[in-house]
Specification:
By secondary structure, the protein is α+β, with helices and mostly antiparallel strands. Helix content is about 20%, strand content about 35%. It is built from four helices and eight strands.
């Protein structure tokens, strides 16, 4: 062996296939895959990984020859399986603007409402003057109501 290679390589070959394993709770399996595997297809499309397999026991296997794509998919899945914590601050992106506030994605696959009263410390006459679809800002999770909806605040996160 020493004649072929003096020491083990510190990095894997960029051409070597990679597989990452994530353990999730069994309750999160359906949420993670989405109806008909919609969420899995979305992650594969957005990240470029080769495959995502979800086992009955909550074990998720992600395969990709690309290290960056694998990392991106793993982070996406971890974000989906995270349980949001009240009082925690998250990065968000505006998905929809309505007259009473903005719906933002604050964790992968998780959306919540930033009510118009929580968008700014000053009075907001028109939500469209403050935020637009695609805007990014920090939000604080204020509560999860009895219907499991996330209520967020931009002004408390500043």
């Amino acid at each position: 062996m020493p004649a072929a290679i003096a020491a083990p390589r510190t990095e894997m070959s960029p051409f070597a296939p990679r597989i990452a394993t994530i353990q999730s709770s069994q309750e999160k399996i359906g949420e993670g895959s989405g109806p008909g595997g919609k969420m899995i297809r979305k992650i594969i499309e957005e990240t470029g990984v080769t495959s995502i397999d979800i086992g009955e026991d909550g074990k998720i296997l992600v395969a990709s020859p690309d290290k960056d794509a694998l990392e991106k998919a793993v982070n996406f899945i971890k974000g989906m399986t995270l349980e949001p914590e009240i009082g925690e601050v998250y990065d968000s992106v505006v998905k929809r603007v309505v007259n009473f506030g903005a719906f933002v994605e604050f964790l992968p696959g998780r959306e919540g409402l930033v009510h118009v009263s929580e968008l700014s410390k000053t009075y907001v006459k028109d939500v469209n003057e403050i935020v637009k679809v695609g805007d990014r800002f920090k939000v604080k999770l204020v509560e999860i109501d009895q219907m499991k909806r996330a209520n967020l605040s931009k002004k408390q996160a500043e």
